[in-house]
Amino acid sequence: GTFGRISCHGSLPLSYSTVSVGPICTSVADAAIVYSILAEPDLLYPYGLKQPKATLSDMCAPDLKGLKLGVDWTFFKACDAEVLSACEKAVKHLQSLGASVVEVSLPEMEEARVAHVICILSEMRDFLQPDFNKHFHEMNLETRASLALASQFTALDYIKANRQRTRSMRFLQEIFSTVNCILTPAVPCTAPRIYESDLLTGSSDMSFTVRSMRFMQLGNFTGIPGLVVPIGYSTAGLPISLQVMAKWWDEAVLLRIGLKLEQFRDQTKKPSIYYDILA
């Protein structure tokens, strides 16, 4: 959801300026139902007090005629070949339903990536400062490393990072004046293998972590809403998803596009170990 759309009251303020909560569901329809219940102002959560009324307008429209889908192809293609192939086919599916694809440019993405890291880690360090001081040896190595890195940032770094946030939001305002949404792959690669040693000691691969967040950072950083929909599988059977992002408060268009993306996925595989909790 848009930053502030759904109340975060009761959740830990680990990184309060980048946290936007939303439902994780097995279908877009379920996500729409949960969203329609949760999306409203909460007196205990000041960030979302002034917001337009949440709607599901045109969600069930028979096609996508009139919608303009923005794609920065250079950014879009920075992913593994299997992911790219599936996501390109999904975009063509949306075009076949009447939407038009408009090429856009997402400027200063590297600057936004660095600023995003500075904001998140600085706020995490602030929230976890008492634990860092009192329970350092109880933390796992990855948490220690992240908080140690965060301790090197200065107030000036944090201020500059938030100035970059303002710039990035302004760029998005201009882009969303010409398109209804921005499309990207959700994650540039499929899930990595879990080794036996990972179950004993944990795993820390910062280069993979940073890469896996490539397409998510813009939404986190600027507070725009996003929807991730599974669209298929790799040859190894691992899921691949497409991400749709829209302007602030326009979750309805995400759900409308998401319903059509579900039609593109020809099957939904169940895990080898599966429990039907509703049976």
TrEMBL record:
A Pfam family matched in the record: Amidase
UniProt keyword annotation of Ligase present: no
Keyword DNA-binding tagged: no
Annotated GO MF terms: hydrolase activity
Domain Amidase: 2-255
Keywords: Hydrolase
Domain of life the protein comes from: Eukaryota
Name recorded for this polypeptide: FAAH hydrolase
Gene that encodes the chain: Faah
